[in-house]
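To: structure subgroup
Subject: Chain for Friday's discussion

All,

I'm putting the inputs and outputs inline so they're searchable in the archive.
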Amino acid sequence: MNFLQFFFIFFTLIALNLCNAQRTPSISYISQEQIKDIGGTVELDCSVQYAREYTVVWIKTGRNKADYVFLSTGSSLVIKDSRFALRFDGASSTYTLQIKDIQETDAGIYQCEVVLSVNNKITAEVELSVRRPPIISDNSTQSVVASEGQPIVMECYASGYPTPTIIWRRENNALLPTGGSTYNGNILKVNAVRKEDRGTYYCVADNGVSRGDRRNINLEVEFAPVITVPRPRLGQALQYDMDLECHIEAYPPPAIIWVKDDIIISNNQHYSISIFATADEFTDSTLRVITIEKRQYGDYRCKAVNKLGQDEAKVHLFETVIPTCPPACSVGQYTSHGYVSQHISTFLVLLALIIYAIRRA
């Protein structure tokens, strides 16, 4: 080797050493986004180059990166939590942060930093997402009351990861006002609600984690009374009782009266009125005409009124010769001596026929 060759090799080695000494540290690898279940384990890797003379730290931040929590510096763990551990592989210059028994609060952004100076850092980050079952939020609709024909809006929101989907259903899989038995979306709108739309709606939140969550939303629809009469014409003999009935569908529950000859009927020795609510929207009313007299035959009107309107229906009571059963021939009335025999009722009917025949003779 001559002098020129030696001189060239010598200065080449010096140049290579100078280049190596001036190389800037870098992060060559950071783990990809991690999605884990609560209670699981995750390992986050950060590999660095040319950072032997610098400090490498792990930091956890929130999704908004407002709060910092220092977890490690160099090969030492800073946080005092037995679920956390740190390993350093000198051969690959990799810092591995391990988290066991993952909790919901562990979700966030984890940053690997090489600190070059106070104001100069090299950073790479990985997001840890924790699967969480859906929980329907308190700001979701709990109940709705609306008048028939009005628009309504029912809202349902849920937290959880992955983001839950919202499905609407009705009790007994009845059709939704929007059509179909299900509807997807946070907001269920009805442009003009009908009384048939009232009932229980289910807001179901699901994201594949656990069994999901459900909220029952009660929809009450206010509407004017609608009266139906099961027997619009009834016949009964003199001196017997008779029941006149009407069924009322309305919400809010209506005020109910019976009227004859434009006079409101009240409970007395001639009449007995009963009102029985079978549900919030359904009411039955019975007017018992007691020991019928001639003047009590005629038209009776059942009236119902609430804040949205009113309705009425007519029942005509006419005279017959033969008593109508029931209530005239009720069997099994209990006395202190036992039950009255059905033969007594039959005897009364025959007696009425005899009296009628005598009058006709």
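Points worth raising on Friday:
Residues 115 and 121 are 5 Å apart (CA to CA).
The first helix runs from residue 3 to 22.

D.
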